[in-house]
Amino acid sequence: MLSGFDDYAVHQVAETIRHVGPSDRNFYDRYYANLHGSSDELFLVMGMGQYPNLGVQDAFAVIRRGTGHHVVRASRTLGDRMDNSVGPFRIEVLEPLQRLRFVLEPNDHQLAFDLVWEGAIPAFEEPRQYVRRHGRVLFDTMRFAQTGNWSGEIEVAGERIRATPDRFGGTRDRSWGVRPVGEPEPPGIRAGELPLQGLWNYVPMQFDDFSILYMVNEHDDGERLLDEAVRIWADPSREPEWLGSPSHEHELIPGTRRIRSSVLRFPGAPEGPLEVQVTPLLELHVGVGTGYGFDADWRHGMYQGELVVQGLSLDVEKDADRMIGLIDSASRFELKGKGGAFTGYGLHEHMFLGPFSRYGLRDFADGAP
Known about the structure:
Layout: E1 27-36, E2 43-51, E3 56-65, E4 68-77, E5 85-86, E6 89-95, E7 99-104, E8 111-119, E9 124-125, E10 129-133, E11 136-156, E12 159-163, E13 169-178, E14 198-206, E15 210-218, E16 224-233, E17 241-242, E18 247-252, E19 259-266, E20 274-284, E21 307-315, E22 327-337, E23 340-353
Antiparallel strand pairs: 1-2, 1-13, 2-3, 3-4, 4-21, 5-6, 6-7, 7-8, 8-11, 9-11, 10-11, 11-12, 11-13, 14-15, 14-23, 15-16, 16-17, 18-19, 19-20, 20-22, 22-23
């Protein structure tokens, strides 16, 4: 099965580009990006993924505007892997690792946009995530991340919003490898187990001259499967600066698993300890309707047919019982350290899976005391 990429010298195995090295059904290759206005006015998350061993390509966009939660999603059978479109969605790589265009054409639902991304720092390769359980590799993924700024237009619920790079920022990443996707498999020996456990906390922070990427996956007993903190300068001639093992202090909203505020500390930073006060500005339940969550009818890589385009609009207050799972928040970051004080903006992403006794979470679904 030949595709456009087969005319480029990019092959990694003795196969056409359509076929990846591992035969694992869970292999995926995905774009993720978010947009905020350095305020609480809106938060937009969008993504597109290919699943070569499932024969599926899908895309989604979800925006929080006021109490509105609007989703557009599309899925089709996978053909030429060079085709970065799914129904009304399209991603164009204008300048690799620096400039991309994200398009959601006008449609029958509540959201459309035409946006151009410009990286503010060099794209940074994050640590590999590898989880093997009962002999099966559940996660084996690579990812690079980048902070940046947006320009273009968004239309949401009949309202047009102009995005300008002076205040509309965000984060994007590209990830690929093996992680649970598609229709659920029979659990077998893994019945009752969660693919990931404990606290997942991912925080890319963008300041004027640098960004900080923080990532922790910590189990209830304190074991960390991922632990990363690095400062990346906007000046590409400066080397990334590793900040040592970070610590977190989260204040949860009583009765929930949502974070009200956080303090992230980097006691091992080379030039002295750093501390970041995190203030979430606008929460987005990114798992609701997008494929990231627990919806039985729509998960990343799930076969939907030749081409399916759907929309979903909810109210985060009236439909509060549906707002569960992974939370992406547009957030403000106040950094203090020996070098001075800085204010930045970006993403605060978190989810608690199962118990996490440090914050009073005793089982799968209970809230903080």
